[in-house]
Structure formats: C-alpha cells, structure tokens
Amino acid sequence: MEQVNFINGQTRLYAIIGDPIEQVRSPEMITWELQQRGINGVLCPVHIAEPDFDRVLPELLKIRNMDGLIFTIPYKARALAHAQHIGPQAQVIGAFNAMVRQADGAWAGEMFDGLGCLEAFRRRGFRLNGQRLMLMGLGGAGMAIGAAMAAEHPRLMRVFDLDAARCERMAQTIARISPNTEVQIGKPDTQGMDVLLNATPIGMLGDTRMAIDASSLPAQLIVFDAIVKPELTPLLRLAEASGCRTVKGREMMGGQISRIVDFFIARGPELLS
Amino acid sequence: MEQVNFINGQTRLYAIIGDPIEQVRSPEMITWELQQRGINGVLCPVHIAEPDFDRVLPELLKIRNMDGLIFTIPYKARALAHAQHIGPQAQVIGAFNAMVRQADGAWAGEMFDGLGCLEAFRRRGFRLNGQRLMLMGLGGAGMAIGAAMAAEHPRLMRVFDLDAARCERMAQTIARISPNTEVQIGKPDTQGMDVLLNATPIGMLGDTRMAIDASSLPAQLIVFDAIVKPELTPLLRLAEASGCRTVKGREMMGGQISRIVDFFIARGPELLS
C-alpha cells in the first residue's frame, strides 16, 4: 500500500497555535529540525479563534502524544495562564512562545524570541558580556531581545522606543536581570557602542527607510536586524557598506528554532534555569 | 532556511483518534492519498484516553483548520454523539469511523468499514446485486460489511456468528435495508453461493485455522477475507488452490481509504445519501 514516510501511528505531535495561522513558518522549519534530530514528530499549524482559545487549549493539552506547543499572535501572553512552570525569560516578559510537557506531566513555558537572538550571536562567536549595546524598538520582540541580552551582563544598554512607558519598563527589566549594567533611555546613537540592535519594523518588506539616522556606521560596530524579510534591510546594507559585521533576522530565526527544539527534546525544566 | 515540503501554515488538518494509537496505519496511508489528490493536508495520530474523550473531542472540532476525523477503537460508537448528521451506514450500525466538517460548519459522520469492502468488489468488477452471499463473523467489521452488501440488494444473504443475538440483529438490519433479499441464519455453507465473505478473525497472523470447514471450494465462488495480515490467509490459499477469484483484506483497506478521502474532500452530505 502506498504511503508517506514522515508520519505514522508513533508520531509525536507538536503544534503552533495562532489566529490567523496561514502565514506561520514553524511547521516546515521546526518539523525539519525535529526530523533532522531523529525525532518522529511533526509540528502542525492549529488555527484557534480568539473566543475559543481558553477552552480549547486545556483540552489540547490532554492529547497523550502532544508534546510541545508554540504560540504566535495573539496568544503569547494568554498562554501564560495554562503552564504550571514559567521560565525566567517568560517571567520578565509576561508572555511566552513555547510550551513543553515535562516528564512529570506538568507544562513549562518559556519565551524564545530573545534567546534566539542570543543564539545567533553565540553561533557567530560575538560575545555580549561587558559590551555596550544600543537597542531600538521595544515591541514584543524588542522587549524579549532586551531581556535575553541583559542576562549576558553587558556593560551598557541604551534603549529607545517612541513609547516612553515601554522604555521605562525595559529599563526596569534590565536593572532587575543585571543590576550592574548601566541603563540609558534615549535616542538611537552608535557613539561608543559595540552592538546596534534593530527591533523596530523600519526597513521591513517594501520600507526603504533606515532604522537609524546615519549615512555611515563605525566599522567596529556589530549590527543586528530582527527583520526577516528582506534578508538585507537598508540598515544591514549600510552596515555592510560601512565594513561592520552583521547578524541577520534569519539567523535569529534559526537560533530560535534550534533553542525551541532543544526545549522540546529536554522535556524538563533544565533550560528554564 | 532548511525545511520540509509536506506541511506549512496553510496545511489542513485531519486526525485519527483512538486509545491506543501507535498501531494505526491511517496517518501514512490517508496522508499519502490526500497529498496524491493535491490536498495540502496531513492526517495526525491523536491519542485521547477514554475518560477525556467526550470533553476533548468537542474542543478539537473548534480548530478552524481541522477538516476531518477518523475514529478507531474504542471510539466508533461514542463518536456518534458528536455529529449533527449521521450517514445511512452509521445509522444502521450505530457507529461510524469518519467525520467531516461540512461547508455549513456542521459535522457529518459515516461508517466506511463496509463501504471499503464494497469499493474493493467494485474495483474488481464483481457485482453483488442479485448474487447469493455467505457472510461469516458479525463483529463490528462483519456487521458493517453486511449492511453495505445489503444495500447492493443481493438475492440471498446467509449469515453466521457464534453469537445468536448478533445473527438476529444482522438479519433484521439486512431486512430493513433490502426487504427483497432472502435472509438465512445458519452454519457456513458454500453450496449454491456466489460469494463467501470472512469477517471472523480466524486465520489472522499466526492462526493456521481455516474460517470454513472445507478441503476445497467451488471454483465459481468469489472469496473475500477481511484479514489484512497475513495477506494470504489459509482461506484465501484454499480459494486460490480451488481456482476461485479472491478479494483481499488489503483491497478492502485501499477501498476504504479511497472512500474516506472522497468523503473528506466532498465536505458535504452527498456521500451520505
């Protein structure tokens, strides 16, 4: 009998939950990573409408061969109520994007948006400890990146967002995670900085604007852009033209996939501490 | 970024629900059939424990990209309560094994165990209308096969099971579906028969017994065995040695897969009438 070779009765299930769901990329990428690591597992797109979320999710968690979940818009904060253990990143952000069933049956959640960025830097061998960072944009991704970076204990973090309340909240979060890191709130600046991080949407898709007002950048600066499309944003083009080393949004995505699959496989709270 | 090509954010979900689930073959076979027909869909194994079934299932049905379900042991009868429309086969059997979300959002269920057998006969060009059938074994599969065959209006159906109550129930079901079919209850007999159907487990796996007490069979008899493993049961070996034409359990399985995917794709009650 003809059959496919990527799913069978022993397959472990993983899912990404969102509304809408059609645009997500995790099914093809996480499933690849799982199968690459020898796991008989697939990650399915699961479309749950907002009014249904809080009733459907607890029942999904009862599926015996469901081992892990990813949450996307609009559920990263609402998912928090459904986990018994909340990781340190998720605690400071107040949201998470991955949840795993532990060996003891309890569910643990953690936020990997920032840890994926950290992983991309680690893979390039760029250290953050003791460095001076400029972070632009404090939406969900920016806050997560700021919290993850703070845990590396940089010397200085300067943060910028048009929303002053977000700046204040990020500054307090950094201070709580890394009391010895100097925190500044203010306009984007590369003067005396080692790393420039863009977490604003400026430069996404057809947007030709530059995320920072500059015609060149110091060559020793490492420039990161969280934007995945286009692969080379106007900021990254300027960075390359200025002789800077760069870390791309795609590398952060790759780092995040890798860390989430680590989390799925570990099935325990090891990664949360 | 590396990725698999068989699942993405637009993938429609199908599931087989059972307890246990590891042994099911639908995920690899139905997914193959779906993708072969150009559907971006996968059928996942979903393990739900008995105490959870009636609470989990209604919530699963709220998943917006979940289009169809298959039920296996022990849920074929319990699933009935969760569908708004029950097909004619399911009505007479009191159970179904497939459910689809119709275009109007309601769920329709039908029993394909017998329809798969019918499809296998149809593919071979073996007609049942006006024929004389001997059916052995009236468990879940046998009852479904009997009900599906009755709808073809054979001239005679003789049924046998060690459980007299099951014989009585099958006879009544046949009479209701096809009032002009002569129904007999009695020991297996091939005398004056055109088709011999085995739905008992005799001859399964290592069982070397013959489902009927005979050393040869009339050459004009068509012999069907619902057993999938081994492919050639002792009964089918005897049939081949006697010059009979045969229909195998695997062909019934293939017929059922095809009919269930038709049902999933139609998304409407057309197949139910």
Verbal overview:
2 copies of one chain form a homodimer. Chain A is of the alpha/beta class and 273 residues long. Chain A contains 8 helices and 12 strands. Chain A folds into 2 domains: 12-112 and 253-272, Leucine Dehydrogenase, chain A, domain 1 (Rossmann fold, 3-Layer(aba) Sandwich), CATH 3.40.50.10860; 114-251, Rossmann fold (3-Layer(aba) Sandwich), CATH 3.40.50.720. Chain A has helices spanning 26-36, 53-60, 88-93, 113-124, 140-150, 164-177, 234-241, 249-266, and strands at residues 12-18, 41-47, 66-71, 85-86, 98-101, 107-110, 132-136, 156-160, 182-185, 195-198, 222-225, 245-247. In chain A, β7 (132-136), α5 and β8 form a beta-alpha-beta unit. The longest helix of chain A has 18 residues, at 249-266. Chains A and B meet through α1, β2, α2 and α8 of A and α1, β2, α2 and α8 of B.
